[in-house]
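> Could you send the Sphingomyelin phosphodiesterase prediction when you get a chance?

Sure thing. Input:
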Amino acid sequence: CQDLRLARAEVCREAVQLFQRDVVSAWARSVLRPAEACGLLLGPRCGHWDILGDWNVSLPDTPKPPVRPPQPPAPGAPRERILFLTDLHWDRLYAPGSAAACPDPLCCRGAARPGAPGAGFWGEYGKCDLPLHTIELLLEQLPAAAPVAAVYWTGDIPAHDVWQQSRRDQLRALGTVTAALRRRLGALPVFPAVGNHEATPVNAFPPPYVRGNQSAAWLYDAMAREWQQWLSPDALQTLRAGGFYTAQVWPGLRVVSLNMNFCSQANFWLLINATDPAGQLQWLVGVLAAAERAGDKVHIIGHIPPGHCLRSWSWNYYRIVSRFEGTIAGQFFGHTHVDEFELFYDEETLTRPVSIAFIAPSVTTYINLNPGYRVYVVDGSYPGSSHAVLDHETFILNLTEANAPGAVPRWQLLYRARETYGLPSAFPADWDRLLRRFQDDERLFQRFWFLLHKGHPPRAPCGTGCKAALLCALRSGRSDDPALCRPLRPTLPFARIQQLWRQRRLC
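Output:
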């Protein structure tokens, strides 16, 4: 850490002290050689690792139902709005007036700096997370004229001070933010998912075969206690066992909340055994098969998008989505902090869009962003509803305006997807056509780049390489598959695309 100048010496020492026990335990039970361990931690410049073999889940013997292209609902059919919150990253030590630039992984903390333009009251552009009052302002200012029917909340509650977090810190963040949501949202049903920052050390989510003090029971049990008013006893049981569950949203629609840490390359516990951790994907197949038999639709929520996952997990998930394309009405993720999506195609030709994973922007500003949140408009609760996404709306708090002297901070609509992109509907085929339009319509692509960053893009423009990598990511619902990107322009070697992806993955 110090030799590679990854952080200050003090931060390195604290990080090593925090991580060493669990990391060494996982390595000791794995088959990693030193060069492989270095490659896993620091990338290919340090060593090569490839110890995670292929594996497959079992799909039902029942034939896949005939594919029926999605159709818009009849005029006047009920619609519902679902509030989507992700990556809140509450920093209890956020200090207005403190240094917004610092050498540590997280800034905007500590004493105010006299005479210097420090961190703003409502948040700051830079390596900073959010004070609680900004999150509460979001909940206070939800549009009263367009009420929501449910809330999907996909994790990452604590701040990015990952080198100095204790279990007590994580549980305080869980309890504080959950209480704020209960207080502000009242009787609204809330369906949470587990983020990678909930654990300490960060990303450390041992599968259920790891027991005792190193297990994740301390976290899952606390989540079950905090969320018991929102979830059924059956859902709480699987939450306690593995951090995932299913629940009814309303008649005809179920939600599946996945623990995407079981697909994460950063989860060092998977070095022991990465084959369908906790049996989660096989469980998902069972839930989807039961929904298919019952004629129900399913929304899948989770933190880390499937295209960011370990290869075998990602490819198995892709197979599941393809098999149950008639049952899965929506996929909703976060984690990247920006506004994007991942498309899924038929496995035979990789040309017919079968599903889309929406990736919503973060509430936090980390790094150099406006705070944001998403509302999905879906086909409502009535017999025969598709429960599909019909549109989505993104809201931001413009920090330049909010932090101005004497300003009244207002969360405001940034854009509506169909209106902004000229989409006839919001089905997977519409997003596939939009992706192809990005190739030649540079003005449209740059508009997407602006909205990707919640209205505060980086100073450096998105040139040819950046564009190639981004378009490839939008077409990649599964990881490590160069075939998905071959039809796209501009072209770039897949190894270079992967290198660019690693540069922009901050969380």
